[in-house]
Design brief:
The chain is mainly β. The chain is built from no helices and eleven strands.
């Protein structure tokens, strides 16, 4: 069982930056893939980024490549999403998620996550 708590959301102007954090309660995350998802009003939840805890491999959806960076801190059991050059279309509730690593390509891990946080609101004003 993994419990996830997100923080770091807020209101920012277009072009600005935010860093989201996701603290995970687990003895070890070495066998997990961590992901970030987002859901805008009236839209389905969508994959944003993923990181394999064991080897730092990452995957991003095309719309955030070059602007967002996912990373993790093993000592703090925390995964981060650094968001730069934010756009109004990035406005959404952002969720952290975790799933057991089955050692497939990191690009595979865009769905079927077992554990979810409660979400944090990110609002980008134009």
């Amino acid at each position: 069982q993994v419990q996830l708590v997100e923080s770091g959301g807020g209101l920012v102007q277009a072009g600005g930056s935010l860093r989201l954090s996701c603290a995970a309660s687990a003895r070890t995350l070495s066998n997990y893939v961590m992901g970030w998802f987002r859901q805008a009003p009236g839209k389905e939840r969508e994959f944003v980024a993923a990181i394999r805890w064991s080897d730092f491999s990452t995957s991003y959806t095309d719309s955030v490549k070059g602007r967002f960076t996912i990373s993790r801190d093993n000592a703090k059991n925390t995964v981060y999403l650094q968001m730069n050059s934010l756009k109004p279309e990035d406005t959404a509730v952002y969720y952290c998620a975790a799933q057991i690593d089955t050692y497939l390509s990191i690009d595979y891990y865009r769905h079927d996550y077992a554990y979810w946080g409660q979400g944090t609101q990110v609002t980008v004003s134009s």
